[in-house]
Amino acid sequence: MASYALYPTGRRPLKTRDRLKQIGLSLFARHGYEATTLAQIASAAGIKKPSIYNHFDSKAALFLELSRDADDDMIALIDASLAEMANAPFEQRLRHLLQQCATFAYREHQGVFYKRFLLFPPHDLVAEAEAISEQGESRIDRRLLAVVLAGHRAGALRETLTDDHFVAAFYCVVDGLLSETFMYERPELERRFEGVWSVFWAGVKAD
């Protein structure tokens, strides 16, 4: 059994529930839902398998909680970007937001898990995973619509750009950049982001 770094040196140990979530996130990201067992998670946590049921009713319950966490973390990332750049020119705000969303996959295990959860949900959890995904998308949509409104008010976005077109283009760019994080090293990703950003901005900015 491979070892897992449960917490950085010098920090207090995680509570058992949090430790199980961290290990579950790692194993689900590496091996997928079907190939990961509660016995593996328990062994990595240094507890007996029945002890897991003191914290989670099932493997499905653990997976779905991690899925909700991943969605919440993406929302938190968006909110943090918008707050950090609140007083910056619109172009800088939009660029920062796009870059932050695209680099979500850099987070160890979480980015891979998020990608698996969105694209390849477990067969027996499709309905539950889709509901979580739809709720998350709805929350992201509201934030992106506020971004479009701010851009139009600032005169930074072209007048004919519709809300739907902006949101669809933003998602497509982020999805593409997320996929590239699994194919290229970071220096190359940064170079490619510059090209993607220049084309995206040219397509949405005011004439």
From TrEMBL:
**Superkingdom to which the source organism belongs:** Bacteria
Per UniProt, residues of the HTH tetR-type domain are 14-74
**Which PROSITE patterns does this chain map to?**
HTH_TETR_2
Cite the Pfam families for this sequence.
TetR_N
Which keywords does this chain's UniProt record carry? Answer: DNA-binding, Transcription, Transcription regulation
Q: PANTHER family attached here?
A: HTH-TYPE TRANSCRIPTIONAL REGULATOR RUTR, MYCOFACTOCIN BIOSYNTHESIS TRANSCRIPTIONAL REGULATOR MFTR-RELATED
What's the protein name? HTH tetR-type domain-containing protein
